[in-house]
Amino acid sequence: MGVRNAAWVRAAAARLALCLLACCAVPAQAEGDAAAPQPLLPAEALQPMQPVRLAGEGVYRWYGLRIYEARLWVGPQGYRDSAPAAAPFVLELRYARALQGSRIAEASAEQMEKVGAGSAVQRKVWLETMRGLFPDVREGDRIAGRYVPGVGARFYLNGAPLGGAQGGAQPPVLDAEFAQAFFSIWLSPRSTAPALREALLRQAAAQP
Prior knowledge:
Layout: H1 3-32, H2 43-46, E1 53-62, E2 65-74, E3 89-95, H3 101-114, H4 120-133, E4 142-148, E5 152-157, E6 160-161, H5 176-187, H6 194-200
Antiparallel strand pairs: 1-2, 2-3, 3-4, 4-5, 5-6
Helix pairs in contact: 3-4, 3-5
C-alpha cells in the first residue's frame, strides 16, 4: 500500500471512529435532557399525582447485605405523618438481589406485626393475599406500591399491574386498611428502619 493510500485509510478510520462516538453519545445526552424522573408506572396511574416528585430515597440492608433501594414519590400534597391517608403516593423498591415472592410476603407480614398494624387475624389474611400477589424478583426488578386515598393499595412489577389491576379489579383485601398497614412498614414512626424512613421523608412536605 502506498503512502497516499495509507494516509487515506487512516483518515477514513478516524472519521468512522468519530461517527461511532457521536452515535454513542446521543443516548447519554438525551438522558441528561430528559424530564424529571418518575416511578415506573403507567401514565394513567400517575395522573392524580402530577406533578410527581421524589420525596426521598435510601437503601435497606439486612446484616450488611444490600436488599433493595427504596424511593418515595409524592404529588403536590406531599406526605404528612399527621394525615398519612390524605394524599396519594408511590413507594418503589428496586431489588438488589433475587428473592422469592413468598419471602417478601412473609417479611412484610412480620414487619406489620412489629409496627403494630392490624390484628393477628387480619395479618393472617393479609399474608395469604400477599403470598398470592408478590412474585419472585430478580436483581434490578422494581415493585411499586401505589396508595390511593379512600381506596387502598395497587401494586406493579416493572410497571405492569399485579393482582388483576389490569382490568381495574384487585382482591378486596387490598383496601385502605391493608394499605395503611403495608406502607406503615416504611413510613410509620414505629418503623424498624428509622434511618430509611427519615431518608424517604426528607422532602415529603407539601409544596406551594
